[in-house]
Structures are given as C-alpha cells and as structure tokens.
Amino acid sequence: MIILKIGGSILTNKDSKTSEVDASTLKRIASEIKASMDNSAKQLVIVHGAGSFGHPPAKKHRIGEEFDKSQYPQKRLGFCEIQNEVKKLNTFVCEAFIRQGLPVIALPASSFITATKKRITDGNLDLFKNYLTRGFIPVIYGDVVLDDELEFCVISGDQLIQYLARNLSPDRVILATDVDGVYDKNPKTHGDAVFFDKFTSLEDLDTLEGTTNIDVTGGMVGKIKELLYLADLGIESKIINAEVNDNIFKVLENRQVKGTIISRGN
Ligand code: ADP
C-alpha cells in the first residue's frame, strides 16, 4: 500500500485570495496516477491539502483559537464555511480522478475524525480499510474537525498522512509538493538554500520559518514535524516535487526521483 499526499501548493495557488484549482496540473497528476495503477496493482490512499480553499477562511474565522462562549454560533458557522470550501476542492480533485478512470471515494475527516488540542485522537479507519480491500482509492483532505478541548480545529493533510501511516502500516509514504524536497531554508526565498537527500532532525534547518504566510497549518516545518513523528515509529517518508512531469508516476513505480527522505536513521 502507498499513501500519497498531493500538497495544496500543487493543486491551488495558495497566495491567491480566490479559490482556484490548477486544472491542468490536476489532470496531469491524475493521468500519472492512472498510468501507474494500470502498470502495477497496488492499494493507494490519497491525501490532499486544502491550499487556497482552506487557509483563507480558516484564518478569517480563527478556528483552533480559544474563544468566548458568546462567539460559539459564529465560530460554528465559520467551521461550516471551511468544511464546505475544502469539500469544493475535493470535488474538483475527485472529478479529475474519476474522469481518468480512478475509483476514488472521498472520506472527509470532518465526518469521522475528532481531535484534542488540534491532535487527532479518534478516527475509526474500518471503512477506509473496507474500501481499500474492494479496490477503491480512499481520498481524504485537510479539513476541520470537532475538538474535545477547543470545540473546533483544523487538521492538515500532513497530520492526516501521519495518522493514516501510523494506523494503516503502508509500504511507502510519499508527499508531493512544489519544491524538490527539504532545504536548510526556504528555497523560494533563498537562492543559496542547501538541499537534503535525507533529513533526520529539525536541527538541520538553518531558519525555522513557516512557508507561505497564509498557511495556518505549519507549512514545511509543520510537514517535517509530522514526518519526524512517523520516522520515530520507523516509518520513512519521501518528499518529492510534483511540478516536475512524470515524478508522481515514477515515484509510484518505485523509480529513482529526486527528493528528500525523512527518517531517523543515517
Ligand atoms: P503543500 O501545500 O504542498 O503541502 P506547503 O506550501 O505547506 O506545501 O510547503 C511547501 C513550501 O514550503 C515550499 O513551496 C517552500 O516555499 C516552503 N519552504 C519553507 N521552508 C522550506 C525548506 N526549509 N525547505 C523546503 N521548502 C520550504
């Protein structure tokens, strides 16, 4: 089984205030996945980010922050708005995949996962497994969920990948984003950033800045933290660049692709 995450940065323009899908990239990625599924049988789980659909409304409604009881109805409506926005992106994603002949089934986190202080504490994956054994491709995405302490919170695609990998024991965990992998600092703003083939500790980062400032879920640092939790459990993951044609196909085929492996070993 492979768990593949497609970053929101690939699917949407995160800096944009409007929600727009990058339709041609989405189509290309769907066809790369289809080509690999046709080439070799495998179970596949897809996680995708929320990108420009989720981050602006999550920021506007400050979901995940403590609030006064009097604000509850307003917060609840904000929660609904975010859930609906990320569902729209998921609809675009699933539509593109189904057009390519991929049997995707959306399983939104907001309908079966709950958290405590922004960390997933409950989420029964039996249905997930049931779909997988019947040859479906479950799709889950960055979403809002109920939180036992904070009432509501945002759960990133990166936390979801960590939760799923921990509980489904996949053979491989792959994250596709819009850079080649992890550098010692943001390669988009620092021309001299040094690339890591293997990343083992947050201390390897030169600067601990976030990513796009719009990202409410932690950006690259948040992503690496989740993957280091997995590495602690002995589960390796790899970050690759999905903007490079054929990278998703190749990585699914277990062929050599430039990227960063996150692990605790040397
Ligand atoms: P996604 O939406 O694909 O999950 P994010 O936008 O959250 O990805 O994170 C990817 C972005 O993180 C890159 O576009 C890059 O600009 C930024 N970034 C910040 N610091 C780093 C770093 N040290 N190494 C690589 N990318 C970084």
Pick out its properties.
Carbamate kinase; 8 helices; single chain; alpha/beta; four-stranded mixed β-sheet; 12 strands; binds adenosine-5'-diphosphate; eight-stranded mixed β-sheet; about 270 residues
Q: What can you see in these coordinates?
A:
This protein has 266 residues and is α/β, with parallel strands linked by helices. It has one domain: Carbamate kinase, CATH 3.40.1160. The protein is built from eight helices and twelve strands. The chain has helices at residues 8-11, 23-39, 51-61, 72-99, 126-133, 157-168, 219-232, 247-252, and strands at residues 2-6, 44-48, 104-106, 113-116, 119-123, 137-141, 143-147, 151-155, 172-177, 198-199, 237-241, 259-262. An eight-stranded mixed beta sheet has the order 3-6-2-1-9-11-12-10, sandwiched between helices. Helix 2 packs across helix 4 (72-99) and helix 3 runs antiparallel to helix 4 (72-99).
